[in-house]
Amino acid sequence: MGDDPLFDDDNTPEVHQPEPKRPWRPRFGIGSIMLATFLLSMLFVMGHYMLNDSKDGTLSNRFSFMFVTLAAPMLLLTILSIGKELLRYWEKQSQRKNR
């Protein structure tokens, strides 16, 4: 309709062209894969100690099961906490040396 102001809304807006899709990239790294593997292995060890009898009799599987289920998570969290604090300390030391 040309220059008539009554028909300004008849103009077609620009068509939005979607961006080409990128290939899928995982949102996890090798550290998270290793952590998941460790946690699953601990779970399977707990199941093994719980369900199987000990053959030697030197260390009963019930004791091993109780150690793995009760003490190992606390030890794991302690080790992870100490490791995290050490990394934080080393980062602060490296920042001080760079100044």
From TrEMBL:
Membrane-spanning parts: 28-51, 63-87
Record region (Disordered): 1-24
UniProt keyword list: Membrane, Transmembrane, Transmembrane helix
Acidic residues bias spans: 1-12
Protein's recorded name: Uncharacterized protein
Annotated source species: Bremerella volcania
Species classification: Bacteria, Pseudomonadati, Planctomycetota, Planctomycetia, Pirellulales
